[in-house]
Design brief:
- The chain has a five-stranded mixed sheet with strand order 1-2-3-4-5, sandwiched between helices.
- The chain has a single domain, classed as Gcn5-related N-acetyltransferase (GNAT) (Aminopeptidase, 3-Layer(aba) Sandwich), CATH 3.40.630.
- It is globular and about 40 Å long.
- The chain contains four helices and five strands; from the N terminus they run E-H-H-E-E-E-H-E-H.
Amino acid sequence: MIVDLTTENVGECARLFVRTFSAHPWNESWTEADAAQRLGDVLGTPRSAGVCALGDDGAVLGFVLGHRERVGAEDHLLVKEMCVAPDRQREGWGSRLLAALQHRLPDVEHWYLLTMRDSPAAAFYEAHGFRPASRVGVYVRP
């Protein structure tokens, strides 16, 4: 079942986030508190939207979360975070999550996100119609 991501399920999403992004290929060092703050901050952004997939036992299997940004006369969606439990990947949950969020935001035509190049995530997003930006680069400091 796919439901709206709310403040009530941010904690469980944060636990999944830590488990997912601590594993290969990300190998990041998140704490549950930091992940909960990040997800809560995104959820608190004006015009945010997110959905999460629940298993038969009610556990969060995955989620996608982002927020609309106005660009000219259109809304674009910046996908800030998405993950599916490592042991449930390749079962179609990511596809269902993207479809559910798109269903909730039918007026948003342009979506964008950041992810590691040459990663399984990049291949997943490309299979779902995303492509590397041709005119925009990501700059970091330091």
